[in-house]
Amino acid sequence: MLGLMQSQPLLISSLIDFAQRHHGDVEIVSRRVEGDIHRYTWADVARRSRQLAHALDGMSLQFSDRVATLAWNGYRHLEMYFGVSGSGRVLHTINPRLHPEQIAWIANHAEDQVLCFDASFLPLVQAVHAKCPTIRQYVMLCDAGKLPEGTGIPNLVAYEDWIGGQPSDYQWPSFDENSASSMCYTSGTTGNPKAALYSHRSTTLHAYAAALPDVMNLSARDSVLPVVPMFHVNAWGIPYSAALTGCKLVFPGPALDGKSVYELIEAEGVTFAAGVPTVWQMLLGHMKPAGLRFSKLKRTVIGGSACPPAMIRAFQEDYGVDVLHAWGMTEMSPLGTLCTLKNKHLALPADEQMKIRLKQGRAIYGVDMKIVAEDGKELPWDGKTYGDLYVKGPWIVAEYFKGEGGDPLVDGWFPTGDVATIDAEGYMQITDRSKDVIKSGGEWISSIDVENIAVSHPAVAMAACVGMRHPKWDERPIVAVVKKPGAEVTREELLKFYEGKTAKWQIPDDVVFVEAIPLGATGKILKTRLREQLKDYKLPTA
Ligand code: ADP
Questions:
Q1: What spacing in Å lies between the alpha carbon of 319 and ligand 1's midpoint?
Q2: What's the whole-model pTM score?
Q3: Residue 428 domain-assigned?
Q4: Atom of ligand 1 nearest to the CA of 330
Q5: Cα separations (Å) of 110 from 58, 135, 230, 429?
Q6: What is the domain count for the chain?
Q7: Domain enclosing residue 178, as ranges
Q8: Is the pLDDT score of 189 beyond 80?
Q9: What is the pLDDT of residue 230?
């Protein structure tokens, strides 16, 4: 017997309809590429998304055709989130930090037909457009009449000219909720990039889940600053969850330096912010010497790579801001786990609570996880045994776009490529990417642990640990370190600093001081590049 409730597809258009009706006067604030601050409301987002949908119809774009963006976090990008997907097309957000060759490859693979870009990326588009034959319309996200002369880009129009004259009474179409809504390519550190193709259903379910109290705890009382880019995994789904809750949104545009982010947080009463550790490092680096405080910021979600304990402590103890450590990936829309305490933990002493907060957290309803041994056997949840982390759920990839890379699943589970422990309470902790874990004398050393200790030293700005071949132990860890400006620490002092903080055999064999550590397009340490840079390096202990 079937239930007798109404069947209504879960569509992204319903999110913007809701925000318009119930939170129409709530502000969306953006720092523009031009440097000024732009303000309007959810009602304006809804109106202009509809104008955009008309412009796409006017180009005879078909259902599921791809519309690409190369853009910062801002109001026009937000309109594309709703106008492109709402009208049945697929929003393809491209990461502008990728190499131009890779961008052209991705645009061709996705068969993008329209490319909308911020003025900052004009030189990039000039460099790639001749290699992108499927793109028939270029749109610069700028004011009417502000298109520069002689760009050499064919079929180029200013966004405001493009949507400006369009009617705002668009009727969103209804269709199967499993239809594709947006796509995002993984960084492709191994082989060609592969695309996760999200659906209206997966996106809407993820938006509900992300807003839950034990996840981002978003509400109509929040002012939310997504520093995580809208060009990678939909800014962790925040634009959708924001429409669903009716919170205020604050977009940083291209200005991600500590000063600009701090000013925006204070000026717009930001209560909740989301970003990767490197962004928060810049923010704290700006605030500390100037003795600045937050007046409204209550919580921040940090993920994308392991959040150093020193940062969690600094936010918590120095600024009274709760850090929610989060883990996920492109293939997971991206949220998998988030770290919040359970009722039974509230009575624990602060340092016991901190031990829990340092983990990547508990699974969100909708994400099943397990750890498995090399032979595929499930491993116990004891907080000690580590294994390959597998996940499944309705917002986790089933296949890559065009079947790139073959079937990604193993018995219906997606192997994440991460190595983790899970404790009896269900708190997961990432030990490493499986390709970064250091195998020393039959034991594994977590490069994340080695890095976390290094960055807790007051003179260290950034650290990256890699394994080096060793004749006796197979591999031994070394740590590459960037010193804070003006700070001093020697190799010997840093090695001594490890004593008592980790097992003796897990202390790195050497410290290499470097000017900078290579970062990838999503702000993560590029260990492959670091290993190349260190190819002539010889272990002192080998
Ligand atoms: P890519 O495009 O490189 O796959 P993703 O943004 O999808 O990038 O990155 C996913 C990976 O990032 C995870 O599999 C994990 O290794 C790492 N990661 C994400 N969040 C965390 C975290 N909180 N702690 C440690 N590693 C993390």
A1: 26
A2: 0.92
A3: no
A4: 7
A5: 21, 10, 18, 34
A6: 2
A7: 25-422
A8: no
A9: 98
